[in-house]
Every structure is written in C-alpha cells, then in structure tokens.
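Researcher: Structure for this, please.
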Amino acid sequence: MHPAKPPIDIIRIDKRLLTNEHLSIKTKQIKLEPISSFSIDKNENELSKIHKHSSSSTPPTSVSYLPDGRIPTPPQPPKYSSINLKPTTPSLILETLDEVMSPQLQHYCISHPICVLRGISNVLKLDLGLFSTKSLIETQPDHQIEVRTQRQQASDENFDFTAMTIPLKNIWKCESSRSYTTIAKYAQYQAYSYNDMIKDDFNEPLLSSTNNLTNGTSKKNSTSCVRTIKFGTNVDLSDEKKWSIQLNELTKLPLFLRVQSAGNLLSHIGYTILGMNSVQLYMKVPGSRTPGHQENNNLCAININIGPGDCEWFGVDHQYWGVIHTLCEKNGVNYLTGSWWPILEDLYDAHVPVYRFIQKPGDLVFINTGCVHWVQAIGWCNNIAWNVGPLTYTQYYAAIERYEWNKLNSYKSIVPMIHLTWNIARNIRRGMDVNTTSSTDSIEKLYAEIAQKTAEAIAAAGLPSSDNNGLSIKHSLPQLPRYQPPPPSPPRPRFPLSQRDTRRACRMFFPTSGHMGFDTVKSSDELPPLEVVREMILYETRLRLSDSIQKLMDIYHTDECAVAYVHDLIQQHVVEYFGYQDVNALRTALHRFPDDPIVQEAFYVKYNKISQGVVQQGQCARDINLYTIDGQSTNLFSQILAGQPLIILAGSTT
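Model: Predicted structure, token format:
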C-alpha cells in the first residue's frame, strides 16, 4: 500500500482561479480538521465522518500540467528599441528535389512565424487539378459543405454595415452567417459569381483601399455597391475511399509536411480530428475571408493554394498574441470564440509587426506554432489545409499551454492533450526525445546514425555476384530462416501465429518500394536497359533480405521516417553501384517493363493501396511468391482468408 499522504490543513484560494463574479472575495486561509488516513478496517460511521469533514461545496481545483503548476497568461509584448512593423515575409523558391527533401527545409519553416514555399508543387509534380472545382464535381458532387455569407470589401477594411451613420467605421467584429449546400451547387455559384462580377466590372483585385480611408473611416457616401458573397468552407476530405486519389497525391510531400507521419504529433492521436489530422478544402470567390485566429492548441498548419486566383495573407508572431487578445477585448469580441478581423492601423499603433504577402497558385504556406493569421481571397480559388505537430519542445509546450489557457476560459480544446501525451509516450522511440530544444540537431543526428548503420549493413551484405546467370529472384534469396530477434522480456505465453504480436519479427520481403512507390512514374534521363534493371532488382532484393538489413528493420520498425530513409539509402546505393544517379532508374522499372518475369516477381500489392481504393475491389491481381517469417514458401492468394482478406509484409512494416 502507498504511504498515507500528510493531512491538508490549509487551502489557499488563488484569485487567478476565480470567475469574474467571485473576484470580490478576498484571499484567505481556511482551517480544516486533519483528515485521518484511510483504512479498509474503518466502519460505516467512521467513513461517514471522514466524508463529512472532507466534503466541500466547491469543486476541486483543476490540475495544471504546466511546469510547477503554472497558470498561463497572455504574454507581454517584447520590448524592442526599434521594430519594423511591416517585415518582409520569409519565402523560399524551391527548384530541385534535393532542396524540397532537405532537412534544412524543415528547420527553415520552424524558424519563422510564417513562411511561403514557392515552386514546391512544380518540383514534386503535384497534380493540383485533383482539387479543382471541376474535379470535385466529378468526384463527389453531392458532398456537403459549409457556407459562410459575408460582405465583400477590401482586405484592410472591415466596415460596420449595421450602423446607420455615414461615413462607415472600421470595426474588429467580422460578421458572417452559416448555411450548408453541396459541392455541385456551390460550384454553380462560383461560376455564376465570376460571370456576374465580370459583367458588372467587379473583377478588380480586392487589395488595399487605404487611399480611400481617413482616420479609419471611408469616404464613400453609400453602401449600395457592397456585394454579399458566399464562402465555401470546411469541405471534409477525410474519407479515404471517396478522396483516395487526392489524398494519395499529397504523399509526395516531404514527411514533415504530410497529413500523416510518425514525426507528426497529430498522427499519434488515434482517431480523426476533422481539418487537423485530415484535409479540408475551401472554395472561394473574391473577398472570401478566414477571420483572425491561432490554430487549435497552437499547432502548425499547412495551406496550399490550388488556384487559379491568389490569396492575401496576414500573419503575426505568436509572442504578440497577448496584444491582439487585449485589442479584441477592447473592441468587444472574444479572442477564442469570436469572429474578428484585425484593423492594421490598430496593430501598428500597438507596435505589432504584421507579415503581409500574396499566395499564388501552387504556393505552400507554413504557419508556425501559435502564429496569429487571417486570409482573404483576391480571386476565384480553392485551398487545401491541415495541421501538423513537429516533435519539438516548443510545439509540445505551446500545445499544453493553450490547453491550460482554454480550460481557464471554459473553452474545450480540440486536441486531447492528455490522451495524446500518453500515446506519444507509447509510440515514440527513445531516440526521438521531445524534450530536446533543438529538433533540427536531434533529427540530423538520428538520420546520420541511420545512414551510418545502413552503410555498414550494406557492406556486411556484400556486393552482387559477377556470375549471376540465372536471373531468378528465388534462387538469389538467402537461406531462411535468418536472424531471430531476442524474445520480449518478460516472456509471454505463446499463441498461434495469427494471434501473435509479430512486430518485433518484422521483415522487408519485397524490393524496390521506397516511400515514393516502386511504380511511381517520374521524368528521368537515366533509364537503364532491361538487363541492368534486372541486375538492380536482384541486388536490391538480396540487400533487403540480408541479415544485416533485417536487423535494422527490427530496430526501426516503429519509426516510419527511419524505415523510409533506409529504403532510400538502399535504392540510392543500388543505382549508384550500377553507374546511375537518379533513383528513378530503379523505381520506374515496373512502368517500363511490366511483363518481364524478373520485374513481375519483384512486384507486390501494398495493403495500404487497397485500403485507400487505389486498387478497386473486383480488379485482377497477379499472384506473387511470398515467404513466411519462418522461411516457408507460400503465395499471395493463399493469404486471402474469409475473415482476413489481405495482410502482406511487402515493402512496408505494416
């Protein structure tokens, strides 16, 4: 039994925990009778006495998970002697795949409050047309979307149209009303609004109209030209069956930008939070507004403009959110639950620097931890967005701090931080320590370690044989069974293989997958002939099935990023060994030689492709030679059972 806790004889009431109506109560000390320790031998009367003395009419104080039980408060603005109130927005023009996949790109993104990555869609050959209005209609025309009815005005204006006074005044409260419709109906409106605005000469970009303002008011004498618009928001793309093609396209992004990855805090929640660890789409006409806000629990966010029009963005560093919170209160809107559009002059007067920039079609905006931002469409466009949570101390602390701030303000957090924390503790390897203050250093150190271990494993496996005449994958396989991982401690009862936890005995059975996909078609000037492709496949197969590589897989099988990195290193080694530089020399083999027997034997069907609808039910699938963990020969079709349609260890550690 645990030792009895010392009796509580004094309770201090902290003013910061009191609601507004209790603020007049003075802090005081309340003397209580010491509570005796609990024992199972106490009778009913004694238990009643304990309950009587320990009962209180007020609920217990909520626990704060911040260090030392600290109560969160809005931060004080930094005190600088001089400050640029209109800073240049950090932006990168990406031109090569190496730049996009570089670890330095993540470091750049998490080092600025907000930044723009231009050219990333072109480099990755993202098919943004899959998210166009035309494609959405063809895919799910009856899909429900939320519609916000708003007033169309310039991005630095927010007039109070309810007031009867002239001239109109700028206010912070951002009015809109909610309704619902379908993608098909909103698409009709989007097209109609384009024709209507062109006809009425309303096709001018909705940019700044500061020249028309004097002391925050407009010189216009009437509101007859103000147009009511409808903004199609929160289009849910979480259903992997309905939106499989669209979601699969986003897997081309670097790991730290993906909707799901092992290095994303939100991927460890265990269920879908719409718009956070799933994709949402926005359908816009000129003037459509996303009011000011911080992301839920201060998570980072990704936003890609599908086009064809532009969007205008405003962003403020998280260290100034306390100032904006005060301005919201001053202007009669709730910072957490209200809808507000900051007036730039108010921010400048409060010495708050504002990033302001244009997002072109294909541009990716990375919103860093806690950045306050608001957005307005300049033209007709669609956008896609989701949240990510880098495994950094800064991100985790900011999320917990906002969780506590939300509790103080009776606002329910969207992210279940306690549940998430336990899941992180279960899922994340010790090497991925979230308590480090420098995520970039830890990531680079980890990847350098993986690269070194992979190089040693490849060297231990040995170079390919020079007299490989049979060109048969089956004959080139090493003898099985191979390396057996140490049994878990303490030992568990043995169950049939179908019920056994086999994660520790994970194997990489089939070659040429990589996180970009074996059959991914990309342009490459280095396309080896069939004979060389065969040799590449045989060599890669032997490497993947070697004892040394299998030991790496058993070490990193819970780390998706590490496994993908080992895949890439093996493939890069293979293509370079045969005198090539582009990994597509190997990855495009199935596309170029679909009927070659060597390529066919290396081909596999991935479980996740079937589950995502890439391989539809009823399609024919080739039978494939498989090997059990114990080294016995089997095939794909023999693994398809009535109660378990398909489970394959093939190029992944699922």
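Researcher: Any notable elements?
Model: The first strand starts at residue 10 and ends at 12. The chain has 20 helices and 19 strands.
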